[in-house]
Amino acid sequence: MTKKERVLAVMKKEQVDMIPAGFWFHYKSDYTVQQMIDEHMKLFRTTDMDIIKIMQDYPYPISGKITCADDWYHIQVKGTDSEEFAKMAEIIRGIRKEAGKDVLIFQTMFGPFKAASMTFGDDVLMKYSKEAPEAVAAGVKIIADALEEWTKGYLEAGADGIYYSAQFGEIGRFEKNEWEELVRPYDLQILKVAEEMPEKYNILHICGEPEYQFETHVEWFKNYPADLINWSVKDNHFSLEQGRELYSSAILGGMNNKGNVLNGSEDAIREEVKGILDAFGTKGIMIGADCTIQGENISLDLIKTAVEAAHAYKK
Q1: Mean pLDDT, rounded, for 52-71
Q2: How many Cβ atoms are within 10 Å of 126's Cβ, its own excluded?
Q3: Rg of the chain on CA atoms, in Å
Q4: What percent of the chain stands above pLDDT 70?
Q5: Which structural domain range is residue 166 located in?
Q6: Contact 259/272 with Cβ under 8 angstroms?
Q7: How many domains, in total, are found in the chain?
Q8: What's the mean pLDDT in 182-196?
Q9: CATH of the domain at 174
């Protein structure tokens, strides 16, 4: 099997020749196009992982100032004719050219609500979400409409799908009815783009926030369109086996993103991978981490060990 065939088989919960794996981490936001291409290809080639997740840590070009509720109706987002989008699309095309066609490439996207938080601040966003939810919804819709076009542009530039970071379902942030009105519609607006295009895919990452101890309502995302789904097992105390019962999607993850793959021994990494697969089985799973690998001295050698352990697994 090619890497692409292997991951597609996992999505369909078919038997694979070996268990695929994928890991990622953040890059510097001041990287040039070529530096970003080079760093992604270095990770891919060194570790032999099975997909490429493009982690472009560039901010979305959103402008405006929130001093009152009415300001949410007047924020602006640059379109796909912007310099900022052109840079990201060039990176996708460059990685596709380097990687070839036999591996799936996913563009990381943050949801419209998270984009608003990064632009205006979480405190401001939450304040007006409680005081003026209709105004916030209008502003988030402006962002979502723009990011929907960005998503189409990413896929047209050569990405096979979107790795969507779904946030703002954290325990203690919103009541479910608030979340369903303010957050969910705009998540789905972005996710539907790949869902409705032929041979395009969604990886859904259910992401928590540090101020909420990374704990999130994993059950709220049950019906999100996803070909692979990922969440923090350790932070939510929600196992891969429980996820298999809850979600219809195949599963990505299992490993502690701040544990062995960051600073453990090779033997510990192999044991962790083996334990995950012994418990879960070999269908409908791709080995990865709870979230991006976070911490100092990230080691490509340790990531390679985890990939190799997945590839070599025999029950």
Answers
A1: 94
A2: 15
A3: 19
A4: 100
A5: 3-312
A6: yes
A7: 1
A8: 97
A9: 3.20.20.210
Q: Is 39 left (phi over 0), alpha (psi -120 to 50) or beta?
A: alpha
Find where tokens 């999130």 sit: 216
CA angle 6, 95, 190 (to 5 degrees): 75
CB 146 within 8 A of CB 114: no
Q: Which two tokens stand for residue 39?
A: 């760093």
User: What does the pLDDT look like over 76-96, one tens digit per residue?
Assistant: 999 999 999 999 999 999 999
Look up residue 5 and give its two tokens.
């065939």
Indicate yes or no: pTM above 0.85.
yes
Q: What is the pLDDT of residue 210?
A: 81
Which pLDDT score, from 0 to 100, does residue 232 have?
Answer: 96
